[in-house]
Amino acid sequence: MLGLWRNLTRTRTEVEAAELQREMREVGVAPIHECQHGAFVCVTGIVRVVTVRPATAPPALEIEVYDGSGCVSVIWLGRRRIPGIATGRRIVVSGRLTCSPNIKVIYNPRYELLPTAA
Fold this sequence. Notes:
Helices cover 20% and strands 38% of the residues. The chain is α+β, with helices and mostly antiparallel strands.
């Protein structure tokens, strides 16, 4: 009974996070919140933010990937754009994780764009 009540009272954000966690388990990757500094990681999630540096700055494309457990910043140096990468897109990225106290970053990872929902 408690489980049914919990399911009926979850917010949209909680439902989306649970769906992302389920998809992550199906793909077989680690949750972002469990990833450790210096480890080679493979994570999947939704692109929540895309940031492109101004033309006057060195080229770099930065995205934020969210998997329902946490976020990781992904930065491609030397790129201003990658076709197919946009907010809302599902993606799998793999590379060496660098952590500071408040942020997790993967630089120049390998990536795979997952099919979009029709």
